[in-house]
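Entries read chain and fold; for instance:
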Amino acid sequence: MPALMLILTCALWGLSFPLIKALDGEQRARLPEVSGVFLAVWLQMARFGLAALVMLPFVVRMRLTRMELKQGAWLAVWGGLGMALQAWGLGHTKASTSAFLTQAYCVFLPLFACLKMRSFPGGKTIIATLLVLVGGAILSGIKPGDLSIGKGEIATLAAAFIFTFQILTLENPRYSGNRGLAITFAMSAFIALIYLPLSLLLASEPSLVIRAGGSWPSFMIVLSLALFCSVGAYGLMNSWQPRLPATEAGLIYTTEPLFTAGFAMFLPALVAGWIGQTYPNESLNASLIVGGSLIVLANVLMQWKRPPHHSPVT
């Protein structure tokens, strides 16, 4: 059940990429003078701030504990900083390269596990990690000559390294009694608080923070991101990931690009009519089939449990 819930988490996250791309197109057409950095920062503030407001009626009587607030704050730090680095790095490298390098946390996690346990990873973990890396490279269309290390690539690798700590924070046994909804609310509220002053600092005028979401399409897209990709996805992640080893959870999270590719085959055309702009669907290709199959195979391998051996009764 935990693995299925994390796969559902990835499905909800997969919605975010076509929705964010549609939002970016709508905002840039409406506010051509606004910088991409401001829009990226503003989106985190608006998305997670709205998510916190949605959850507020459900947590107002829960009495969040000190440990839930502490864990939520750390998740906000790692998640917020990681997303900021990832967004900045995307502006200085190819999207395919960014998608591939972001999956580096599936390598970092086994390394941390080895350091913690003072042992080498098992053969199954090594094989699954290699399958994910090869599948991710094929899925992203990466070629050996594309992997030059510049500032964009370094920033993306740094983001993947930081996302590793976000995953490990959920595995920390000191937070074992925390409630998923409580820490999701705390995380969302802290991310909004982190990005609000940054949004004001980057805005050419304070009213721009309101104007950025001042159209019906932009508000509905942000609301969808808040409900499905923040409350839904992070709520599931924060509730179910602690029931799995971080290494296994990290490999499951690499299925997100598969859902993204699936949504990209039909969602853009639907959203295009909504925002009044051209946004073509993507098509199925060999890279998606082969790369996706390897990632699925890696996760099946990690979930495969050998049945216990019973000695014959004599």
